[in-house]
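Escalation from tier 1.

The customer reports that the assembly of four entities below gives different structure tokens on two consecutive runs. Tier 1 could not reproduce it. I'm attaching the input and our single run for tier 2 to review.
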Amino acid sequence: MILSDRRKRITIKDVAQAAGVSTQTVSRVMNKFSYVSGETRQRVEEVVAQLGYHPSTLARSLSQQRSYTLGIVTFDLKYIGPSRTLNGIADKADELGYMLLMKELDNFDTNKIDDVIDSLLARQVDGILWAVPEIGDNHAWVEERMEKIPVPVLFIAMQPRSGISSVATDNFQGGVMAVQHLLDCGRKKIGHISGPLGWWEADERKRGWLETLNAAGLEALDQHCVEGNWSSIRGEQAFIQLLESYPGLDAVFVANDQMALSVLREAFRRGINVPEQLAVVGFDNIPESAYFYPSLTTISQDLPLIGGQAVQNMVEMIQARQGDQPAIAQSIFIQPTLVVRESSKRV
Amino acid sequence: MILSDRRKRITIKDVAQAAGVSTQTVSRVMNKFSYVSGETRQRVEEVVAQLGYHPSTLARSLSQQRSYTLGIVTFDLKYIGPSRTLNGIADKADELGYMLLMKELDNFDTNKIDDVIDSLLARQVDGILWAVPEIGDNHAWVEERMEKIPVPVLFIAMQPRSGISSVATDNFQGGVMAVQHLLDCGRKKIGHISGPLGWWEADERKRGWLETLNAAGLEALDQHCVEGNWSSIRGEQAFIQLLESYPGLDAVFVANDQMALSVLREAFRRGINVPEQLAVVGFDNIPESAYFYPSLTTISQDLPLIGGQAVQNMVEMIQARQGDQPAIAQSIFIQPTLVVRESSKRV
DNA sequence: TGATATTATGTTATCGATAACATGTTAGCG
DNA sequence: CGCTAACATGTTATCGATAACATAATATCA
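Tier 1 run:
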């Protein structure tokens, strides 16, 4: 292996010179197709191997106006949800030959949003995946800003909006499934510990709870629901509060597994038997939930699948735009599934 | 806001023309320093704002041979550990003005490693952060390949090697702290459920267990340790096995919190009282561990800090190289801390 | 007052590739 | 045998910026 000064990058020119051909010919060899004689091809390939030449994707991106890179904007990776989504995104991107340029967002200052988008565009990403939870009106910029962005944008876990692509779990349906399951188990007094209200996903899960109870002719009063914030610690407080505000409670639908864990623990401490006296259903199906005591019935959402689906759609949009076809925006809902475990046995 | 065809990028030339100056002058305005008259600067800035010009970082990277982008290679983001590290990396990178080009590795095929590195280099990253756990000899390539890589490389959670930069938790010390704590609680028969042996981190934690017992004059026999694989399910099996192979067991040091969760559950099922009959100490301090029943004593490792530290060092290495100073490789050990909770009360 | 430094700006080359166009050779066919 | 199509390769322009160098106008100083 011949290696000159390792600081010096080996360029297409070096290869061209060493092989005694033009750079264009080297480019043709590297990119397969188009006419190159077998003899020339072989000679160039030998030189490429010998010099250890690797083309600069950067230069190629500039000249082709295409980077094979996706911008991905996430929020708070310290939680398991976003990173499982990212996992799916990374796998699928790899499969389809894209790299990921990542940016983590930690607040919703509008300037910050513009900066993030601009910094991605400045690096010539072919598309942007926005994987930031929808909270309050923090997606309000979308409608207005959208058409000024020269590449396709796809939103993950955003409330469907017409004309804008998105992929999300059907949280409402998840809530319905959870509560319907509890009803099927013969429960009548079903409380709810919600996520932080204003988060679209939390609101949807709560709506599933509420509408399913109503449909069954049961009452869902304000005091039957306590607001949490996804964390175990708030889950504990919320549960304690719920026990007071909903006497006779015989089941709880908890908006995520982490809070459900606290419910199980606090119930145990107080001698409330789960599931006999209290059935519990969570949401997310984190791997540990099968090992809670008792094991947790939960609504499973396939976050890696959502991430993968998002990338798939994005790449299709990019290709459509490449071919100057109209990219059709679509909102995709992925259905969650119910996983029944010990915490909700039929009585 | 004047917007022409949104597909057409506004370049430095457009600005130069509109402002009646050369591109070089625009470049000078955009990059502050260097001489520009106040009048010209203002005129250019107005045009920039009016046209909504954003420089192409891509083009800049090519011409400066510097991208302000770090390549980051991770492994299996679906686990919480890697993503917490990534969280710290992302925050610090943002703070220091770098973006992240991410690649997820899912196996250790040597070709794959070369491909990953080459694909990052092709995109002109200024440095590479290798955040893949060290398993068996999957880092064997390091010594040989290292000097051919033209940018600094830093390894996370790798066994220190001279001449190579790395940042890692002191897993051995963590093991020592866990076992010492159990000894301090008056335990004598301390078993261990390890991570998958061959993983450096698992081996270190086990070594901490073993050496601490030996130092205390206690025996640590083969049958006092069962190998797990970090997962809750294996944790359960390992614990059951350990109960058989180590009669009289009065404490367990479990190599991660997820497996410890299973231990707590299985102990409860069998009527083994924690901590009275059995003290349990985990490792990681995942947020949920405070809400296990009973709450889990554990060794806390600050993964975001490690990620941040890694970025910090990396940027220093990049700057040193920029200034043609010799970048000094250093291996940093971060000390974990003991968090005492209910699962290990003194008897 | 002329020499030198400072300020302000423009011109040309360069980063590493590909696109578009040009040209030359060979092969096939009527 | 001459014309066209297919093949093979080279030349020049371009992507969007910055580096290096050049030039001109002031300002400063001995």
